[in-house]
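Reopening this ticket.

The earlier resolution said the output was attached, but the attachment link was broken on my side. Pasting everything inline this time so it's all in one place.
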Amino acid sequence: MKKLSSSLTNMAVVLTVIAVIAGGALAAVNAITAPQIEKINADNLAAGIKKVMGSEDINVADPTEQKATIGGKEKTFVFYDVADAQGTALGTAVQTTENGFGGALKVLVGFDTEGTILGYTILEHAETPGLGAKAGLWFQKGEKGDIIGKNPGTCNFTVSKDGGDVDAITASTITSRAFLLAIKNAYDQLNAQQ
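Inline output:
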């Protein structure tokens, strides 16, 4: 077999062929894995709603989505009205996103019918491991930044460094601010919706 000469044209053709093959392989893998990833995300969301509402036996209404412009940026909120097995309203789980230190911080927070926080979970984040990534635990019941049982409408829902009522994650004030802002925005939009 004759060796190809090292010309610019030959190199461009070879690189193009490699790129097309690699792109095709990536597209095939994506097509195969996309349904499974979607199912995992749906299962995680369902488990998250149960966690933030503090109940396993719940009925979740179809989600409603609302867009709002906050601080000059368009934000999207997804509301999940939740009732117990007998149909009594428990409250609403709200999915919201805010920019943290490392990127988007997607939070799911559960509010009772009065707007008090029942629980929360972090759905996605790109925060620094060991620092901002602590948001998943830092603000839980009994922890240093405990927000469970607080109502963002009746307390100063900012970090104590800014004069608020919530202790920030040590060495992660930006993430703490973003987290609290995401929940406060979710609370405000929930009230606006009602």
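Reporter confirms the inline version is readable. Helices lie at 8-53, 135-138, 173-193. The two ends are 75 Å apart (CA to CA).
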